[in-house]
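Quick one: co-fold with FO1.
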Amino acid sequence: MRYLAITGGVGGAKLALGLSRVLEPSEVGFVVNTGDDFEHLGLHVSPDLDTLMYTLSGLSNPDTGWGRVNESWHFIETLRDLGGESWFNLGDRDLAVHVLRSGWLREGLGLDAVTARLFRAVGIEHTAWPMSNDRVATRVVCDDGEYAFQHYFVRERCAPRVRRILFDGATRECPHPAVLDALADPGLEGVIICPSNPFLSVDPLLAMPAMREALDACRAPVVAISPIVGGEAIKGPTAKIMDELGLPQDAGAVARHYGALLDGYIVDACDRALAPRIAHEKLAVIDAQTVMRTLDDRINLAHTALNFLHTL
Ligand code: FO1
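Sure, here it is.
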C-alpha cells in the first residue's frame, strides 16, 4: 500500500473518489471514521462507510451526498405513519445494506469483513477499513446536555451549542490492525487526511492512542486538506463547531488543531494569503482548488495531494 487516506463522510468521500481514479486498488487504502455508527431500529448503521461505498461505486445520492441515488422512502414514511421513530431517513434501497450488515455482524463477522463484502458486492475493488472493528462512539456535549452523535447531527440538526466532543471507547479499543501495519510499512509514501470535519470525523480516529502513536511514528509524510474555505465549511457544521469551541473559523485553526501530525497542508486558492502565515519550519503549505464540484475537481485535487506528498 503506497498511500493511506483518512476520511469521514461526504467531503472526504469526494477526494477518496478522486484518489480511487488515479491510484490502483493495491496503491491506496481508505481508513474510515466509525464514530458516527449507531444502532437504530435494531440495525447497525455505518454512515461514513456507506457514504464512501456509495460514492466510490457511483451510487451516491447527488443531492444529499449520503444515502443512495434513485431512492424511495416507503419504509420510513410508513414507519412515521405508524408512530415510529422516523427522524433518521433510511431509504428503501439503503435499508438493504443495514439489514445485511446487521445480520452478518450478528453471525460474528467483523465490521471489516462486512465492509469488504458490501464493497465487493457493489463492484468496488479498493479497500476500506473501518477505523476499528470495535465500538468507538462519538458523543457531543452541548449547553443543554449530552447527545449520541446522530441525535446531535441529524435529529437536532447540529443546533445545540457544542462544548466538548467525546469518543467513548477510544482509549480502550484498538485501531484496525491493517491500518497500523500500513502505517508501519516502510513502503508507505504518504497519508492524506481528506477534507472531512476534523472534530467530528477525524478526531475519533486520532482519539485512539495506538492510531495517534502509529501516525506520529510513521515515516511517510502526512498531508491534510482544509475543510474550511474562506472561513466557511463547504458542507456541515465545521465552522459552527469551531466558533462554539472558541476557535477562529479559518483554515489556520484546523492546521493548528492537527498540530505536529502534519507535514503538509493544502488550503483553498481563495485562502492563498493565509498560507505563509500557517506555514512554519515543519509544515509546508500550498494552495489549490479544494472545492470539488465535478469529478475532474476530485481527480485534480487527488493529483495535487499526491504530488505535494512527494515534495515533503
Ligand atoms: N444525514 C442527515 O442529515 N439526515 C438523515 O436523515 C440522514 C440519514 C442517513 C441514513 C443513512 C446514512 O448512511 C447516512 C445518513 N445521513 C443522514 C448522513 C449521516 O448521518 C451524516 O452525514 C454522517 O454521520 C456525518 O458524516
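If it helps, The radius of gyration is 19 Å.
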